[in-house]
Write a structure and sequence with these properties.
The chain has about 300 residues and is an alpha/beta fold. The protein contains 12 helices and 10 strands. The protein has a 6-stranded mixed β-sheet with strand order 1-2-10-7-8-9, sandwiched between helices. A 4-stranded parallel β-sheet has the order 5-4-3-6. Helix 4 packs parallel to helix 5. Bound molecules: pyridoxal-5'-phosphate. The site of pyridoxal-5'-phosphate has 17 residues, from helix 4, strand 7 and helix 9. One of its GO terms (molecular function) is D-cysteine desulfhydrase activity.
Length: about 300
């Protein structure tokens, strides 16, 4: 494995707040089982590249070295937004390949409008093409359209992203026993686990079902670290029906967590993580004395205006 910290140049340009704060909070639902709860505030790393976005993008942007970065996402992708913002801040061109060709005929939603305002070229593709985005046929088509570009996968999860996320593990080394993170594509968990010390473990909470994530994390670890790295497991019971789905129970829990701890909770990922950890603590899944960190991988969206930015 090569160097796993971004260069001083990138850090100077973006000034991320690192290490992110580790805050202990008092929560009766954990305390009565002897569990100490900590919030690893990755949401405070950077206003435009919060949470795992900085950690996953930094080494990739450095490797791209100013060339156009092309990447993929859905209509509300945080990853597209962060890539577009990085392009604006660092002055490199970006292309976002967006799932859903019907979106090309509608006004941009606030998230895509922000991407466009940050200079990202948006390219809409139908769902069949999007599903085949890693195929050589689709990639060659995109390279034909956009020329010499650096391609980042959906969610930005590749070997460099996982390597970047090892810093998250190193930052909590010696501080906690279990570090838990919500998972979409698995890149953050793959790196977090690799960065932990022996005796610490990582717990991933997928926000989408399907049972594919364990193999995906293992694959990313093979690519990034040449094999399995660190002690990690998945807790797959808390998807609440799938990506961006919620239930009244989850919404009420999240409102309550915000009130209790004064933490604005991102709803697609972080809410499910916090719900899962609370349920697990109540089930007695953590031994008394466990120091448990919930990685706050994102912040709720700032209010955005509906817009019809032209493209
Ligand atoms: C706020 C937030 N938390 C967690 C994740 C999951 O990260 P990963 O795709 O690396 O599993 C994402 C997606 O990138 C995210 O936007």
């Amino acid at each position: 494995m090569g160097r796993v910290t971004p260069s001083a140049d990138l850090s100077r340009a973006l000034r991320p707040r690192l290490p992110s704060p580790l805050q202990e909070v008092r929560d009766e639902r954990f305390a009565r089982h002897g569990v100490r709860l900590f919030l690893k505030r990755d949401d405070l790393i950077h206003p435009d590249l919060p949470g795992n976005k900085w950690r996953k993008l930094a080494l990739n942007l450095e490797a791209a070295a100013g060339r156009t970065v092309l990447t993929f996402g859905g209509a509300y992708s945080n990853h597209l937004r962060a890539t577009a913002a990085a392009g604006r801040l660092l002055g490199f061109p970006t292309v976002g390949v967006v799932r859903g060709d019907e979106l090309a005929r509608r006004p941009l939603n606030p998230s895509l409008a922000r991407c466009a305002a940050d200079g990202m070229r948006l390219h809409f593709v139908d769902r069949t093409t999007y599903r085949a985005k890693a195929s050589s046929e689709v990639l060659e088509g995109l390279l034909g359209l956009f020329g010499d570009v650096v391609v980042l996968p959906e969610g930005g999860s590749n070997a460099l992203a996982a390597q970047g996320c090892t810093a998250l593990g190193r930052e909590v080394a010696g501080e906690v026993d279990v570090a838990a993170v919500a998972c979409g594509t698995g890149g953050t968990l793959a790196g977090l686990a690799a960065g932990l010390d022996p005796g610490q473990r990582a717990l991933g909470v997928p926000v989408v079902g399907g049972g594919f994530l364990g193999e995906e994390v293992a694959r990313l670890q093979r690519e990034a670290f040449d094999g399995p790295a660190g002690d990690w497991s998945l807790e797959e019971r808390f998807t609440f029906g799938g990506y961006a789905r919620t239930t009244p129970e989850l919404a009420a829990f999240t409102d309550g967590f915000e009130d209790r701890h004064g933490l604005p909770v991102e709803r697609v990922y972080v809410a499910k993580l916090l719900f899962a950890l609370t349920a697990l603590a109540e089930e007695g899944a953590f031994a008394p004395g466990t120091r448990l960190a919930a990685v706050i991988t994102g912040a709720p969206d700032a209010p955005l205006q509906e817009s019809s930015v032209s493209r």
